[in-house]
Amino acid sequence: MTVTASTEPAASSSSPQDGGTPEHAPQGGGFRRNLALAVGSVGVVYGDIGTSPLYALKESIHHVAYDGLTRAEVIGVVSLLIWAVIVVVTLKYVVLIMRADNKGEGGTLSLMALAQKAVGRRSLPIFLLGVMGAALFYGDSIITPAISVLSAVEGLKLVTPVFADQWNVILLAIAILIALFFVQSRGTAGVAVFFGPIMVLWFGVLAFLGLIHINDDLGILAAFNPLHAAEFIGNHGIVGLIVLGSVFLAVTGAEALYADMGHFGRFPIRAAWLFFVFPALVLNYLGQGAFVLKNIGDEKSVANPFFLLAPEWGVLPLVILSGVATIIASQAVITGAFSLTQQAVQLGLLPRIEIRHTSETQHGQIYIPQVNRMLALGVIALVLSFKTSSALASAYGIAVTGAMLADTGLFFVVAYHVWKWDRWQVALFGIPFLAVDLIFFGANCLKIPEGAYLPLIFGAVLIVTMWTWVRGTRIVYDKSRRDSVPLPDLVKMLEKSKPVRVAGTAVFLTSDPETAPGALLHNLKHNKVLHKRNIILTIHTADTPRVTDSEKLTVEDLSEDVKRIIVRVGYMESPRVPHFLALARRRGLDFDIMQTSFFLGKRTIKAAASSGMPLWQDNLFIFLSRTAANATDFFHIPTGRVVELGAQVTV
User: Fold this and answer.
1) Strand pairing partners for 562?
2) Same domain, yes or no, for 449 and 496?
């Protein structure tokens, strides 16, 4: 029987009152260290939201520019952009949700694990919210590189007539994207060193370009008054909702603040946002708005205000810099998809998958070939299908709003059960954010006929996949347990029957530490021998991102020659069996790794009419089982010491 990841409650060192202090996030080091972490966070965390000025204002005013823009409309749209950033990013994520850390880690699945642990049982609504948020994040991971790179390359139209032909833009964008996905296998550790300074330069340029153009029309400063945003929505009806769908482009990437909290720590990310990134974005939106007000009758200025903020000689350098910034933004989303997949596998939401570690010194630098290929094909298909960034903007946003809705729902659970807020406090802070999320989600739903159905379909496929895997795994687990022998009973039988002993140590991996491993029973039945030393090894995935070595192992003596080892591994850690055995040796367990054999169960799964799942779901589960990575590779077991014993199971 192979190991199946499972979850179990684990103690957290976080304080329930203040959201906790990230145990694994970088701490201390004074001003210089925090400054370095803040700069690093600018490169990794804010890449996606930092490229929003390329298209957010342009797409927002596009919906009301067809019959001529008015000053009130421009000020209203800019006001919507600014207040969307304030409410969704600053108040919701930076101030509130970032307090909900799971031992220093953030992200939808971390929030789900924290909520499950707080409730004390596996709750279906919490599970569905977590799965929905994770699945929709993958939709965002496909669209972000496509729209970001296309937007940057389209700026070349202002530099040379060669790119007046959109197909030249498409081909260059595809070439950049192929190169981006091709280098993923080499890891991002080396490239990431340059991300921070480049994005610091990018945000500096955003702030500078905005600042020098605010004087074009100081009336744009009225956008700070939220009444202009409210008046715009009130005066434009359904068109106002459509504009809101484009305004949301300004906050895509906000979830990255929370997801990457474990890499940089809460304080550096918050400081970078409040004192640098947020002011730069606001200045740029104000500058673009003032530029449009000054040139309100010029279609060219209204169609592409961002690149026209630069002087004529600066357009090409700005296009190049924006291209680099979009690549960095895409890299951050791709890396996020890798990390999310690793968490999903460890939490038992997806089958085992090949995960390669690309850095010997930096934890979390991973590469997942299957996910990389899936994203690359999806991104290129989107570019070829939609052809322009404006068309892609119609598909963008709905996946992110869905993921943010999931975060808000999980926030209610954490605030009530972990932080022990009163219900009126949860309602006071949670309901306004839920209302904002629902408004943005509804606005983005209007874009479904124009292409927003794609990320929804992709997300739905992933939700069904995760649900099928979890459900099928549970059925297989229950059936195996019904047909199994309790481990204590087997140990007593072995003490009486005294089978033939052979030299060495046998390690049997099993998902259920209370029952005898199938591989052990098959070995006794067919080979009629038992090793002198036997280790029953179970690996549980905890609800925390990492587990310290001192808390990782529980070693029990079931008899003189049978030991049971239960391992708790964090959902962001790799389950390395040799490392676990090395820890066991430090605890006094005596064995020679060179005389150790590892016994794995290899299941052949067949569909059954009365399994508890529809036949199509049975077949999907069987397909997923066949695509799962080899257990030997996944658990990093020495290949020359593995024995696999097969068994048939129906689902």
Assistant:
1) 534
2) no
Please check whether residue 245 is in contact with residue 397, taking contact to mean a CB–CB distance below 8 angstroms: yes
Domain limit, last residue, from 409, 444, 470: 470
Instruction: Name the DSSP class of 360.
Output: S
5 contacts 345 by C-beta, under 8 angstroms: yes
Q: Distance between CA 589 and CA 587 in Å, rounded? A: 6
What is the phi/psi pair of residue 447, to 5°?
-90, 5
How much is the pTM?
Answer: 0.78
**Contact between 184 and 332 (Cβ < 8 Å):** no
pLDDT at 225: 96
So what's the pLDDT on residue 190? 54
**Residues β-bridged to residue 603:** 647
Spatial distance between the Cα atoms of 254 and 341, rounded to a whole number of angstroms: 19
**Angstrom distance (rounded) from CA 146 to CA 572:** 28
Backbone torsions φ then ψ of 470, nearest 5 degrees: -65, -45
Alpha-helical regions (H) of 361-419: 369-386, 389-393, 398-417
Among 101, 67, 459, 63, CA closest to 248:
63
* Residue 337: per-residue pLDDT: 84
- Sorted by sequence, the CB contacts under 8 Å of residue 149 that are 6+ apart come out as 173, 176, 177, 180, 323, 326, 327, 330, 383
Q: How far apart are the first and last CA of the chain?
A: 15
The closest of 228, 304, 224, 239 to 56, measured between CA atoms, is 304
CB within 8 A of 468, min separation 6: which ones? Answer: 613, 617, 620, 621, 624
At residue 49, what is the residue type?
A: I
- What amino acid is encoded at 77 in this protein? V
- Amino acid (one-letter) located at 60: S
**The pLDDT value given to residue 363:** 55
Let me know whether 506 and 403 are in one domain.
Answer: no
* 634 domain residue, yes or no: yes
Structural domain of residue 552, as residue ranges?
Answer: 486-650
The pLDDT assigned to 102 comes to: 73
Do 301 and 71 touch, CB atoms closer than 8 A? no
Q: What is the pLDDT of residue 519?
A: 85
The pair of three-digit structure tokens given for residue 630, joined into one six-digit string: 């080899």
From 437, 441, 415, select the one nearest 426 (Cα to Cα): 415
Together in a domain, 129 and 239: yes
**SS3 (DSSP) at 123:** coil
Judge whether 591 lies within some domain: yes
The alpha-carbon radius of gyration of the chain (Å, integer) is 27
Question: Based on the structure, what is the number of domains in the chain?
Answer: 2
pLDDT (0 to 100) of residue 220? 96
- Strands 7-8 and 529-542, bridge-based pairing: parallel
Last residue of a domain, one of 402, 437, 470: 470
Residue length, the chain? 651
| Structural tokens at position 477 | 């687990």
Q: Helices (DSSP H) in 418-526: which residue ranges?
A: 423-445, 453-482, 487-497, 518-522
As given in the structure block, the two tokens for residue 179 are 């190169």
Strand partners, 597: 506
Residue 209's nearest CA partner among 278, 305, 293, 277 is 305
SS3 assignment, position 509: strand
What is the CATH classification number for the domain harbouring 76?
1.20.1740.10
Dihedral of alpha carbons 452, 454, 459, 461, sign: positive
Within the chain, which residues score under 70 in pLDDT?
A: 1-29, 187-193, 262-263, 358-365, 609, 611, 646-647
| CA nearest to 66, candidates 302, 374, 368, 416 | 302
